[in-house]
């Protein structure tokens, strides 16, 4: 009898979409021996490139259910991925810890209860007298911040991650086809993906990793899936003020829902990831700095040196993400409106198991 790997080597899998989800799936499946083709019209303009790369797994406050299971699995799988990817970029790493702060007393009480009940040594309460909060208070001239620190969560630089994945995919000789898939259909047990340039790519399987556009490629009558766009935006601010040294701050932290990443002594990234619109509004600076009531002078005088946004897909009527076997040889892996970077290891593992079963 032929080994699974021999079976797998004969099979060709098309992955539509080359964001973080498509890339993780491609690598995971190529390691199993499958022949992979990724199809995408643009490589650099997706929400994965817009992400801030925070990995908020362990600090997730609901410790049961599918969402927690995916997080827990990803937390366990990330170190293995880092070891694997470091062969292609030895500087790739996850910067830890991650700090979450609030000025809302009710939210803080919930955090305290969560930490107490989770009995997890990697989570600790941060009171006002902690050194992290003292440094943040000094820089932002705040007084009433409190929160938690998670020693198991952190941040990976998404740009480095995606570039490293590309290097790795190239090394594994994974085909990349530049093109927009406008139709998929099944004919004689094979899937045919048609691009806008009229190219037809035959494969044994198709995995839809093309975020919002995935639903354009499926039969909406048989598969009742609805995805809504969700905006995430970020900006880099240049601070020209001796008053503050941004490197005195923690490497990554969140205040009242805004993610903050000091990049250098006078550069800061601020991002938000859950906005119910599709187009960024004019007042990016005000929106992204509204995490404190009274902004310090250095922040008020700060100049936006870069700003960007990304549109993610949010499932309606079912939880995120959507990972389903739609029909023989067709898998959908989308709806990562948040935490796509965090969840990519667990999701690609799920896809790989489905495909192993399909071909075994
Ligand atoms: C500002 C911002 C901050 C974020 N911060 C974080 C964070 O800190 N941590 C975290 O975990 N997540 C974060 N996210 C979320 C994260 O970016 C997403 O969850 C993740 O990138 C989703 O990846 P994806 O591969 O599903 O989609 P995408 O990266 O959007 O990739 C989809 C790809 O499909 C391609 N495509 C579309 N249609 C077709 C077609 N017809 N044919 C072929 N290809 C097609 C597109 O060109 C695109 O490349 C953030 C997002 C934003 C915008």
Characterize the structure shown.
Helix 2 (20-31) packs parallel to helix 7 (158-171). Strand 15 (258-264) and strand 16 (267-275) form a beta hairpin. The protein has 2 domains: 4-88 and 158-226 and 316-359, 3-Layer(bba) Sandwich (FAD/NAD(P)-binding domain); 98-151 and 228-315, D-Amino Acid Oxidase, Chain A, domain 2 (2-Layer Sandwich), CATH 3.30.9. It has an 8-stranded mixed β-sheet. The chain is built from 10 helices and 19 strands. Helix content is 31%, strand content 30%. With 360 residues, it is α/β, with parallel strands linked by helices. The longest helix is centred in the N-terminal third of the chain and has 21 residues, at 65-85. The chain is elongated. The N and C termini lie close together (11 Å). The mean pLDDT is 94. Flavin-adenine dinucleotide (FAD) binds at residues 16-22, 39-42, 46-48, 50-54, 180-181, 209-211, 213, 232-234, 271, 273, 310, 312, 334, 336, 338-342.
Content-based structural category: alpha/beta
Q: Quote the CATH topology of the largest domain.
A: FAD/NAD(P)-binding domain
- List unreliable stretches of 5+ residues: none
**Largest sheet: spatial strand order:** 5-6-4-14-15-16-13-17
Strand content: 25-35%
* Count of DSSP-assigned helices: 10
The first-level CATH class of the largest domain is given as Alpha Beta
First-last Cα distance: 11 Å
Gross geometry: elongated
The radius of gyration over CA amounts to 22 Å
What does the main sheet amount to? Answer: 8 strands, mixed
């Amino acid at each position: 009898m032929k080994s699974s790997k021999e079976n797998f080597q004969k099979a060709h899998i098309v992955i539509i979409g080359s964001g973080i989800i498509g890339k993780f799936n491609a690598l995971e499946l190529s390691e199993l021996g499958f022949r992979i083709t990724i199809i995408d019209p643009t490589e650099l303009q997706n929400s994965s490139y817009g992400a801030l790369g925070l990995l908020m797994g362990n600090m997730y406050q609901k410790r049961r259910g599918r969402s927690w299971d995916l997080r827990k699995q990803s937390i366990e799988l990330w170190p293995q991925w880092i070891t694997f990817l470091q062969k292609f970029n030895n500087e790739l790493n996850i910067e830890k810890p991650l700090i979450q702060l609030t000025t809302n007393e009710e939210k803080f009480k919930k955090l305290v209860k969560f930490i107490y009940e989770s009995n997890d040594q990697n989570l600790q309460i941060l009171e006002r007298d902690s050194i992290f909060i003292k440094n943040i208070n000094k820089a932002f001239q705040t007084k009433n911040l409190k929160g938690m620190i998670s020693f198991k969560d952190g941040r990976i630089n998404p740009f480095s991650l995606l570039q490293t994945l590309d290097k790795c995919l190239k090394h594994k000789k994974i085909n990349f086809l530049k093109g927009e898939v406008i139709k998929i259909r099944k004919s004689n047990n094979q899937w045919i993906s048609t691009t806008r340039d009229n190219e037809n790519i035959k494969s044994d399987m198709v995995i839809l990793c093309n975020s919002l556009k995935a639903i354009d490629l499926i039969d909406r009558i048989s598969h009742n899936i609805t995805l809504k766009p969700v905006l995430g935006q970020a900006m880099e601010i240049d601070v020209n003020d001796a008053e503050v040294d941004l490197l005195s701050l923690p490497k990554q932290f969140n205040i009242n829902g805004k993610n903050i990443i000091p990049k250098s002594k006078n550069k800061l990234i601020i991002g938000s990831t859950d906005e119910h619109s599709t187009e960024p509004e004019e007042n990016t600076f005000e929106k992204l700095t509204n995490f404190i009531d009274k902004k310090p002078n250095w922040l008020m005088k700060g100049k936006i040196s870069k700003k960007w946004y990304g549109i993610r897909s949010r499932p309606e009527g079912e939880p995120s993400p959507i990972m389903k076997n739609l029909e023989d040889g067709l898998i959908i892996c989308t709806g990562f409106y948040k935490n796509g970077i965090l969840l990519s290891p667990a999701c690609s593992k799920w896809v790989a198991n489905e495909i192993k079963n399909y071909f075994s």
